[in-house]
Design goal:
The chain is an alpha/beta fold and about 150 residues long. It is built from 5 helices and 5 strands; from the N terminus they run βααβαβαββα. The two termini are about 20 Å apart. About 35% of the residues are buried. The model has no long low-confidence stretch (mean pLDDT about 95). Bound molecules: ligand CA2.
């Protein structure tokens, strides 16, 4: 049987606080709940997933660098680094892997400074505004993308 494609799910700063505050913006699920739901959906989709979270820009850059050659795709919610980090963008461009950017909230409905994403330049697509379900939508899109790339 062919090896399951590996997808790295990365979460950026403060997303470890999910479920503790601002449920009206980010929902009530904790990051552990989201990771567990992703693992269950990934198994149904025939994907292997690894879920990681960091509050540090450098640590996220290091994990993205390591993903090249070790993973087949990346799903990332870069948190506030979305709007500030050229370093994360450069790492994602260099990784040269299919990337799906996820945000729990609809960043376009919020403050102006959240409307721009540096990361989107490296993304195949962006899912925002669907809460925790967005990660599962991203996994479905990633599974389809990886199947298409195997067929090409
Ligand atoms: O909507 C998203 O997923 C964001 O990436 C979340 C980031 C925010 O800076 C982006 O603009 C949009 C913030 C995550 C902080 O999450 C918390 C959750 C509970 C308590 C405190 C922070």
């Amino acid at each position: 049987m062919a090896k399951a494609p590996k997808v790295l799910i990365l979460n950026g700063p403060n997303l470890n606080m999910l479920g503790t505050r601002q449920p009206e913006v980010y929902g009530t699920a904790t990051l552990d709940d989201i990771d567990a739901a992703c693992r269950a959906r990934a198994e149904e989709l025939g994907l292997e997933v690894e879920c990681r979270q960091s509050n540090g820009e450098g640590e996220l850059v290091g994990w993205i660098q390591q993903a090249r050659g070790a993973a087949d795709g990346i799903i990332m919610n870069p948190g506030a680094y979305t709007h500030t980090s050229v370093a994360i963008l450069d790492a994602l461009l260099a990784a040269d892997l299919p990337l799906i950017e996820v945000h729990l909230s609809n960043i376009h409905k919020r403050e102006d400074f959240r409307h721009h994403s540096f990361v989107s330049k490296a993304a195949q697509g962006v899912i925002c505004g669907f809460g925790a379900r967005g990660y599962l939508m991203a996994l479905e899109a990633m599974a389809a993308t990886l199947v298409e790339s195997q067929e090409a």
